[in-house]
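We modelled the chain as a single entity of 134 amino acids. Its sequence is:
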Amino acid sequence: MCGEIQPAGGSRQRIDKWLFFTRMVKSRSLAQSHIQSGHVRINGERCLQPSQTVKPGDRVELALERRDVILLVRLAGERRGPFEEARLLYEDLTPPPDETKRLTPYEQAIRTSGSGRPTKKERRAIDRLMSDED
């Protein structure tokens, strides 16, 4: 397979090259390490070999650092081009993120009462309760 030119259209392509061409990973070596660590599934089955091939119609599930992505292979890539060109290689089936899970920075900073470390006043009350046990 080394040195072969991939014909365009409905051909098969190595999963590491395809992920690189779709701009899901920054380099082929990163794609290979991602695949070998078990973060890629093709048609529901874990892929551990970067040499495994994908064809149009295959479903690729990819666990990235900040999100999980579900892609449907449309075409085999010829090169790593701009985003507009890479976007033609797949269809994104990833469900939209849940809006209810998102908290504003203010909501993240506010602590509910009673959670976290006790205040000085609460600690003294706890100490009084613990010392009155005799």
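As a brief sanity check on the tokenised model: DSSP finds five helices and seven strands in the chain. The longest strand covers residues 68-73.
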